[in-house]
C-alpha cells in the first residue's frame, strides 16, 4: 500500500490531496485547528526534501558527536520505512 500522494494542501483545517486523475481528490486528514493543519501540510510536503538534506549532511563525513550520528541514523531509518 502506498501513502496518499503529495503535495497536500490545507483548506480550513482539512487536508486535500489529488491523485493523477484530477477528479480524484481525497481528504487524508482533518485537523482540530488551522495551526495543526498548517504544520501537517508543511511536514508532509517537505518530508522527502528534509530526509534528503539529512542524508547529505550525514554522508558528508563531517565530524559530529556520536549521539548526533546515532540520532541521525535512527531518524533516517524510521523515515525510510
Summarize this structure as a short list of keywords or feature phrases.
single chain; 81 residues; alpha+beta; three-stranded antiparallel sheet; 3 strands; elongated
In short:
This protein has 81 residues and is of the alpha+beta class. It contains 2 helices and 3 strands, in the order E-E-E-H-H.
Describe this structure in words.
With 81 residues, the chain is α+β, with helices and mostly antiparallel strands. The chain has one domain. It is built from two helices and three strands. It has a three-stranded antiparallel β-sheet. Strand 2 and strand 3 form a beta hairpin. Helix 1 crosses helix 2. The radius of gyration is 16 Å and the shape is elongated.
SSE layout:
Blueprint: E1 8-11, E2 14-18, E3 25-30, H1 34-59, H2 66-79
Antiparallel strand pairs: 1-2, 2-3
Helix pairs in contact: 1-2
Amino acid at each position: 500500500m502506498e501513502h496518499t500522494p503529495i503535495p497536500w494542501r490545507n483548506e480550513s483545517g482539512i487536508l486535500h490531496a489529488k491523485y493523477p486523475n484530477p477528479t480524484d481528490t481525497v481528504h487524508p486528514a482533518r485537523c482540530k485547528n488551522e495551526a495543526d493543519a498548517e504544520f501537517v501540510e508543511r511536514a508532509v510536503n517537505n518530508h522527502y526534501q528534509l530526509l534528503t538534506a539529512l542524508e547529505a549532511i550525514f554522508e558528508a563525513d563531517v565530524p559530529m558527536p556520536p549521539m548526533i550520528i546515532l540520532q541521525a541514523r535512527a531518524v533516517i531509518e524510521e523515515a525510510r520505512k
